[in-house]
Amino acid sequence: MSSQIGLYQNTRKGNSLILVARFLLVSLNIDAILEEVTIYKRRKRLEEMTKGKGLGEAYTATVTRIKSQSGSKSRLGIQALIWISHSERPLKALELCQALGVERGETDRNTRNLPAIETVLYCSLGLITIEASSSTVRLVHFTVQEHLSNATSLFHSPHSLMAEVCLTFLNYQCVRNLSTALGSPPVSAPFVRYASCYWGAHARKELSQGAKSLALRLLDGYDKHISSKLLLIHEGDWWWHRFKKYGNAAEGFTGLHGAAYLGIVEILGSLLEKKEWDVNSTDVEGNTGFAWAARKGHEDTVRVLLALPDIDPDTTSVDGRTPLMWAAACGHKGVVEKLLERTDVNPDRRAK
Q: Disulfide engineering: 126 pairs with which of 13, 21, 35, 236, CB 3.0-4.6 Å?
């Protein structure tokens, strides 16, 4: 009974904070209307706002107020906006809080640094809300998303920040200790899934030196890290059959495979310089790193790998598919053209 009362009180508290934040946003809209000096212009501004137009000034003013908050409230509010407006998929409340609780430079998780979702909502001054049915955190209106996406000067290197947070989390010792036998992240750490599947997407857009160093650490022994398994599961449900068949289907999916899969040339180059790799090694399905690069359509990565003296661009997977077949099947015209220029690629091969 006491836990139910506590949940009820927390829910009421969270709803109250949301209402307060939304009233702050409404007041900004009213102020924008009252700035007009005639009834005609005020009515025109009101009509524009009801149609989702002319709200940019109010949103910019709200972001300015978020930035001017005292203490760490400003940082929390801005980073929450960055995550929600730039994430690759919608985030659940706990995922967002875990991301916001990451301090770059940490080596392990600090549960005491996890902000409460009520605090996150309050610090965002009405721009963020939670869908009650799904616990998904989102912006209060699609026009906020449009404004934050177009106003690139509001945030400094958002994708670089997100990549570093994801990689810091994945390099936590408690995460590195997770067994690759797990089919999904533990309930206590749902952010592991997002970080595993999307750190590369953020790093491709903006790569800081910090993110690069963290990525190199993660990719060292990558086939023994749960994030490689989660990445492959994200590739498609059919990988579940591979895991059931082979046990750890991520075995053989090395850091070189991961870098080629993600198509981050700068990280790939550093990996190749760091140590000697068997560039033709395969995962349990017979895919080389080069085959993954061709399959994902990463032309720059394909070019770098093709320049290696020992590369075999015509290997076959266990089902008989070559990199050329994968590139053609996935519609990667540029990669297909590069491969057809090679004399060591047989375009007449057939899959099993």
A: 21
Strand order in the sheet with 91-92: 91-92, 136-139, 128-130
* Burial bucket for residue 151 (CB in 10 Å: 0-12, 13-18, 19+): middle
Distances (CA, A) of 116 to 99, 100, 120, 214, 281: 12, 10, 7, 27, 45
Q: State the number of CA atoms in the 13 A half-sphere of 254 facing the CB.
A: 18
Task: Please give the Cα distance from 45 to 53 (Å, whole number).
Answer: 9
Q: Please say whether the beta carbons of 157 and 87 come within 8 A.
A: no
- 């000067």: which residue's tokens? 153
Nearest to 343 by CA among 316, 320, 321, 313: 313
Token duo for residue 99: 């991301």
Non-local CB neighbours of 151 within 8 Å, separated by 6+ positions: 56, 59, 60
Question: Does the pLDDT of residue 58 top 90, yes or no?
Answer: no
| Helices and strands (H, E) in the chain, number of each type | 19, 3
Question: Worst-scoring range by mean pLDDT, 37-41, 334-338, 343-347?
Answer: 37-41
- β-pair type (128-130, 136-139): antiparallel
Q: Residue 136's beta-bridge partner residues?
A: 92
Q: What is the pTM of this model?
A: 0.83
Query: Residue 194 and residue 90: Cα distance in Å, rounded?
Result: 10
Half-sphere exposure of 30 (CA within 13 A, CB side): 6
For the residues 302-316, what does the mean pLDDT come to?
95
The CA radius of gyration of the chain, in Å to the nearest whole number, is 24
Tens digits of residue pLDDT in 252-264: 899 999 999 999 9
Cβ neighbours of 104 (radius 10 Å): 13
In the chain the domains, ranked by start, together with CATH numbers, are 2-154 (no CATH), 158-251 (no CATH), 275-352 (1.25.40.20)
